[in-house]
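Milestone M4 deliverable, item 7.
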Amino acid sequence: MLHYYHGTDRPQRVIEQLLGSGILPSNFHLTHEKEVATNYGTSTIEIVLEKDLILASVRRINKETNYNPVVGNHIETVLETPAARNELYSVLWDAMILD
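Output delivered:
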């Protein structure tokens, strides 16, 4: 199992999107590091997958056009396309609000 994290100010909505409606917003961001996700909202969602995401974009968080000194040079996974978001649903095991 693989664990990803997503920071949000609307945890119930994200859980509904993950486990209920099946409709995530475009450019949904994840990280393997809980400490990084906590910088992006008041709550952190843990997302457990059966296997890794192949169709997602993986890149450094800090880029020339987007620099956030709080998160340093960590990695983010972004579900930019409908295919990438559908892939998440096909390997999704569970999701829960951590805090």
